Amino acid sequence: MSEARTLRVEGLAAEAGTSVDTIRYYQRLRLLDPPRRVGRHAEYTGAHLARLAEIRRLADDGFTLAQIRSLDDGPSHTLDRLADEAGTRSLTRAQVAERAGVPEGLV
């Protein structure tokens, strides 16, 4: 789906293989950005579809929704925070992953 193409929530749910209720739940949890409003209608983009795929992949890998949300700061923020807590920036990837509670491949 191109970024310029937009979908309503029902179309997004169909393309993502999920339900409208799940999309709204993810929005309440702030896992999914709100759509752009055009009058009374909400428009979703390819970025929303990609985010839903990312959430599904992480959940399938065993992450809870709370853990997925905590990863939203991005790896660099997580690395910086963990390094600051350790008082050094010389942690190994394995140490960072262990402290963050995420697989090493995400670090």
UniProtKB/TrEMBL annotation:
SUPFAM superfamilies: Putative DNA-binding domain (SSF46955). The keyword Iron does not apply. Keywords: DNA-binding. Residues 6-74 form the HTH merR-type domain. One of its GO terms (molecular function) is DNA-binding transcription factor activity. The keyword Protease does not apply. Pfam families: MerR_1. InterPro entries: DNA-bd_dom_put_sf (IPR009061), MerR-type_HTH_dom (IPR000551), MerR_fam (IPR047057). This is HTH merR-type domain-containing protein.
